[in-house]
Amino acid sequence: MSKRKISIEDIARQAGVSHSTVSRALRDSPLISAKVREEIKKLAQEMNYVPNAIAQSLQNQRTYTVGVVVTSIADPFFGELVEGIEQVAKQAGLNLLLSASHGDFEQEIAAIENFHYRRVDGILIADSRISKHYTQQLTPFTVPTVLINIDTEDKGEIFHSVAIDDRLGGSLAVEHLIKLGHRSIGYLGVGDGSKAEQQRLEGYQMALTQAGLPQNPDWVAIFHRDKETINDIDIGKKMLSQLVASGVTGIFCYNDMVAVGALLACKELGISVPQDLSLVGFDNIALASYITPPLTTVSQRMSEMGEVAMTMLLELFQGKPVENQLLSPFLVKRASSTTVSKRKHSRISV
Amino acid sequence: MSKRKISIEDIARQAGVSHSTVSRALRDSPLISAKVREEIKKLAQEMNYVPNAIAQSLQNQRTYTVGVVVTSIADPFFGELVEGIEQVAKQAGLNLLLSASHGDFEQEIAAIENFHYRRVDGILIADSRISKHYTQQLTPFTVPTVLINIDTEDKGEIFHSVAIDDRLGGSLAVEHLIKLGHRSIGYLGVGDGSKAEQQRLEGYQMALTQAGLPQNPDWVAIFHRDKETINDIDIGKKMLSQLVASGVTGIFCYNDMVAVGALLACKELGISVPQDLSLVGFDNIALASYITPPLTTVSQRMSEMGEVAMTMLLELFQGKPVENQLLSPFLVKRASSTTVSKRKHSRISV
DNA sequence: CTGTTAGCGCGTTCAC
DNA sequence: GTGAACGCGCTAACAG
Question: What domains does chain A contain, in order, with CATH numbers?
Answer without folding.
Answer: 8-51 (1.10.260), 65-164+303-327 (3.40.50.2300), 166-301+332-342 (3.40.50.2300)
